[in-house]
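Encode chain A's predicted structure.
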Amino acid sequence: MINAGIVGLGWWGQTLVEAVSGGSDKIRFVAGATRTVNADVERFAGEHGFALRESYEDLLADPNVDAVVLATPHSMHVEQVVAAAAQGKHVFCEKPFALTRAGAERAVEATDRAGVTLGLGYNRRWHPEMVALRERIASGDLGVVLHVEATMTFPNALYLKPDAWRANREETPCGGLTPMGVHAVDGMIDLCGDVDEVYCQSFRRVVEVDADDTTSILFRMKAGMSGYLGTMTATGGGFNFQVYGSKGFVKLEGMTHVAGAPSEERRTRLFGNCTFKPAKGPAETWQAERCDLSRAVLEAFAAAAEGDEPFLIPTDQMIHGAAVTEAIIESAASQAITKVA
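Encoded structure for chain A:
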């Protein structure tokens, strides 16, 4: 059993706690730290049986804490990972891991040097449908992969207050890229390999805060296939992920992490309707299995920290994902095709 400290107790930090509270035999939260402590946070900590520490440093100094789970603003991740590694703590970092390749390399080097496990919150990799799609591609059932694309939407930015950290362009460049689009980017890396170049356009249409709400990105993979990702933060919530091959395509539908939706729904309904349409013959359709992906990724991290099995996402792919994010942001600013470092 891994004793973990949760860092950041906003709505997503609380969702992570709820995913394993009282139901996991691999990981439990025994301490927490957050920038803003109020009556609701104190009540939540009490209900889930963990103590609040006055600071991140106090949490890291707790000998009963084996690992930290970071549900904090993106810009804080690298320094927090480095600090945790220096104290010999395993680290699970919510996505995006870092906003630059250099930052990601620094964090990985720190955990490698300390000999601690590094986990990353791209939980969709653990869903049975993504596992099956990975196997279908590897077996050749889809033929030559031609193109992969995703659309991810939610209405969250319509309700952001100007002082919210996600309303800060420095924290959430390219609108929906960092809160949700990076999940699809990770899926593309997982299934298609490294990204060679990107082109992004991103702008604000309707939200009142100073943040983009409409973003579209083109990809070219080193293996030759193309990709597309569209994110919108000011419309209904939805998730579509499709892989097109010379023998047919697979389409996965579901939902995104819509703020205000019940915690269980946000954790278990990320995949729903599924379709396989072969190049010849009728389509096959089915309903995805419901499973708690937040619990799955945290338990996989705990198993890796215990030495049972490697974490599913290799650190070189964590670094590459950060490099792709950096290139997308650069492309949006320059309005030019940008090579991934």
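The domain at 126-296+322-339 is CATH 3.30.360.10 (Dihydrodipicolinate Reductase; domain 2).
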